[in-house]
Structures are given as C-alpha cells and as structure tokens.
Amino acid sequence: EREVALAEADQPATTTDGRTIPVFANVGSVQDARDARGADGSGLVRTEVLFGDRRTAPTTAEQAEVFRAIAAALDGRPITIRTWDIGGDKPLPFLPQPPEANPFLGERGLRVFRRRPDLLRDQLRAVREVAAETPVLVMFPMVTTVEEVAWGIEQLDALGSRPDGLKIGIMVEVPAAALRVGRLAERLDFVSIGTNDLTQYTTAADRTNTAVAALADGLDPAVLQLIATVVSSVPAGVEVAVCGDLASDPAAASLLVGLGVQELSAVGPQVPLVKAKLRRLAYADAAALATEALDCASATEVRELLKRTS
Ligand code: PEP
Ligand code: MG
To answer: Of all protein residues, whose CA lies closest to atom 4 belonging to ligand 1?
Structure first.
C-alpha cells in the first residue's frame, strides 16, 4: 500500500467526486522539506525548531536563507512560515523565559513578543524578503483575541507595504479563537487549526503528560465540534487548513475533509498516505462520516467509526 501511495505521491489528492485537497508537509528542517514526497508545499514551517539550537537570535539574512532553502526543496511550492512559537514545551535558548507556574497557559507563541517586538520584526523582515521571490504565507501562533491579530498585522505592516501575494493567517489552537474565528479572521487570508494545542486546551489535558494522554485525544467530539464551528464561521474566502497531528492520520484526515477543512498539512512521510486515502474517498461519504462522528459520545466511538468505515 505504501508503495502504491509513493508511486502516486505527485498526483493531486482529488476525491472520487472531484474535490482536490492540497496536502502540505510540516517542516522543522530543510531535510524535512526534502523528505516530503508529493507535498503541495509546506503548511507549517516550525521556525522555533529550525533555529532551536541557536544561542543567539538568527539575523534576518540567516532566516531568509533557510526559508529559501526550504522553498527550493519544495520546488518553489508555497511555504507557510509560522512566526516563533516558543513557551510551554518549546524553549528557545536565545530568548530565556522566566519560570511560570503554568507555562502552557503563560507566555507562549505570539504573546511572548509583546515584550520583544524587535525579534518578531526581524523574522517578519525575512518573511517579506522571501515572499518577494517565492509564494509565502505567514501565520501567527497561539492567538486568542482580535486585538492580538491586529497587533501581529501591525508589526508586519510597520515594515512597509506587503509583498504581492503574501498571505496572512493565524493558528487556531485556542478554544477562544475557534469560537470567535468569524471576528478574528476578518482581515486574514487563512486560518490553520493546530489540533495538538486545540485538543490540549479543549480537554484541559497537558499534551506532554502521559498520565492524561487518553483525555488529550484529537478525536474527542468536543474538538471535532470546534473544528466544525471554525469551518462554518470563518468569513467568506478565508481558507481553513489543519496542520496539527490529526491531519497526519489518513482516517482522521478523511474526517477533517468531511468536516469541511480545505487543506491539510501532515508530517512529511505521511503525505503520500494521506493523499492516497483522499483519492479513494468520495467527499459526500466523508461529509456523512463527519456528521456521524459529531454525534458520537466519545473519542473511542469516533475511532471505532473510522475503523469500521475505512
Ligand atoms: C498544533 O498545536 O497543533 C501545532 C501544529 O503546533 P505545535 O505542535 O508546533 O504546537
Ligand atoms: Mg501549537
């Protein structure tokens, strides 16, 4: 099965009833981009992973060079650069954080840069530079409020007029953002649902704590309901992607498509398998599956449903 999927990796993921779902790759290194066979681009460049071993902040030029290399490894297909996402489980040596009682509820993602806008702007300069040469999307992580979206956009626009074609989005990974995406996304081109954090915050179960791993299940109907809410409430024309780990599981990926998600981003080696699965799928059946899943009592029931129907 893997061989067939690999042989067809470069074919688009078009369902049997003619809906094409771009399948992107999550990337934390240039090598990840090279390994992403058949990816339609990158739906998530984890910049904090790219530069995770740096003792000093990388310059704009250093960042631009790595972004260029990733774009080249993906044959110039679109890359989605996520601005520094640090805090919680992700320390960054060049930006030490004071100890916090609840790091996952503390200064994470975009929140950190309210006190270091200089570091965010250096990164956004690199984004702008590369966006003038190759298709680029930029997205802000850990956004909760409309005011934070406005602040992120302000940091970008302070650097000058936007390069043609640069798309702007946010991660939807906080339940408040999922519930209010109709307002949060008013000035955006896309949103990308981070199911890892969305699951953690919806179930109040730490994603790194194995004692509560069973609770932190991305197939929990509460998480699926939030995804459905995002799809139904984004402003017209705003694309909805999923870049959390749920998109890397072919069965869950079909469910996401059924919920109305338009794009997926998976870990590189899973891209051909997710694409192969979607090619065998009728969108109408996926939509029926999603309706059934939303009616399930638990993640376990959803998982059984997926097993039964795949
Ligand atoms: C997520 O939260 O789902 C996500 C994709 O981001 P990360 O795993 O890097 O927090
Ligand atoms: Mg996240």
So the answer is: 194
Report CA(16)–ligand 1 centroid distance (Å): 30
Determine whether the shortest distance from the Cβ of 82 to ligand 1 is under 6 A.
no
- Residue 199 CB less than 6 A away from ligand 1: no
Cα separation, 222 vs 1, whole angstroms: 32
Q: Which atom of ligand 1 is nearest to the CA of 200?
A: 2
Give the ligand 1 atom nearest the CA of 245. Answer: 3
Whether 218 contacts 195, CB under 8 Å: yes
Distance CA 36, CA 41 (A): 9
Per-residue pLDDT of the chain in tens (310 residues, 90 and over written 9) = 888 889 899 999 999 999 999 999 999 999 999 999 999 999 999 999 999 999 999 999 999 999 999 999 999 999 999 999 998 888 889 998 999 999 999 999 999 999 999 999 999 999 999 999 999 999 999 999 999 999 999 999 999 999 999 999 999 999 999 999 999 999 999 999 999 999 999 999 999 999 999 999 999 999 999 999 999 999 999 999 999 999 999 999 999 999 999 999 999 999 999 999 999 999 999 999 999 999 999 999 999 999 998 7
**What is the whole-number distance in angstroms between the Cα of residue 146 and the centre of ligand 1?**
20
pTM of the model: 0.98
Number of other residues whose CB lies within 10 A of the CB of residue 62: 14
Of all ligands present, the nearest one to the C-alpha of 243 is: 1
